[in-house]
Amino acid sequence: MGKFLFQLFDQVLANGSNQLTDNVDTYRFGQAESVQVDDNPACWRQELARIEPYLDGLERTYALWADDASRRLMIQLFAFRILGNRKVRLPLSHPGYLPAITDVRKRMLKEPEVIPLNFLNWKLGLFDLGPIGYPIRIYFTEKGVHTIFVLDHYRHPLPGGQIGVEPGDWVIDGGGCWGDSALQFAHRTGPAGRVFSFEILPDNQEIFQRNMALNPELSSRVRFHGAALWNVSDQTLAVEVNGPGSSVMEKFHGESTRNVKTVAIDDLVAREGIEHLDFIKMDIEGAELNALKGARMTLERFRPKLAISVYHKLEDWVTILDYLSGLDLGYEFYLGHFSIHLEESILFARCLPGHP
Q1: Using H for helix, E for strand and C for coil, what is the string for the chain?
Q2: Looking at per-residue confidence, does 111 or 37 come out higher?
Q3: Whole-prediction pTM value?
Q4: Looking at domain 157-309, which of 3.40.50.2000, 3.40.50.150, 2.30.40.10, 3.90.550.10 is its CATH number?
């Protein structure tokens, strides 16, 4: 038995008798109790069966993390995947989590429910982020403000440093949605930086542009692209529309409201004459591996810091780390997680100095 599987079984056994009643993100799922899997052993076995084909790869991933904190977090997330929220409490699930989101609304909301969305009955309000140190006004949700700006979704602190956007960085913002991460990155890069932001859905693009208009100084550092990041450029993909979770695919077997052209990061770098690229963020609903393959020359040339979502597909926990480690560029890997359920697991990576 490998170390990952041994630690996972130990965590499952330690949590199997729990009966948690307060481990629900009501901002994300509403007042009804959210359960990742049904609370019975048959469903636990079913989830284990889904994981079983990936066990060898998950052992490799477990060994690749640069610190014990990342390994422990991975075990917690997979125990949650098997047992659900009635049994397993993730690190952010503490008494202050939901009140902190409520506090965002109290302190920063200027105009409630300005923009209705055709997604889960969400409505965007207008927030002023000055109280938390950002010169940003933005149409967003209180949970979004808390996740992106308070929890600092795309930054991983380390002893003596961080993996995140820094002054002067040039940045790829894959999955720009409503412009939240683009504005945060533009603030952090300062006047010398640039942010290349990609968003494929017209409804999201409209809100993105409204948010850019609210922040003209920051938006002058942002270059918007309506293409999908992919392994090749100028391919036409179908879009499966699902609000902020909209995704692209080569073959679509349902109704797609539109198609979208692709761009590879390597081609973008060549076309734009980019001389340094310092940070790549991707939250593109399962297209991350393809997009990274389209950035191979960029990764080899610039070795940028990375913040890559790995929670959209089970196999991403294996294939994305296999791909990046296989490039042998000296990357070290860390894991972050920014919710009390299974969404928002982020792979952070940086290159070790002195690697050939």
Answers
A1: CCHHHHHHHHHHHHHCCCCCCCCCCHHHHCCCCCCCCCCCHHHHHHHHHHHHHHHHHHHHHHHHECCHHHHHHHHHHHHHHHHCCCCCCCCCCCCCHHHHHHHHHHHHEEEEEEEECCCCCCEEEEEECHHHCCCCEEEECHHHHHHHHHCCCCCEEECCEEECCCCCCEEEEECCCCCHHHHHHHHHHCCCCEEEEECCCHHHHHHHHHHHHHCHHHHCCEEEECCEECCCCCCEEEEECECECCEEECCCCCCCCEEEEEECHHHHHHHHCCCCCCEEEECCCCCHHHHHHCCHHHHHHHCCEEEEECCCCCCHHHHHHHHHHHCCCCEEEEEEECCCCCCCEEEEEEECCCCC
A2: 111
A3: 0.94
A4: 3.40.50.150
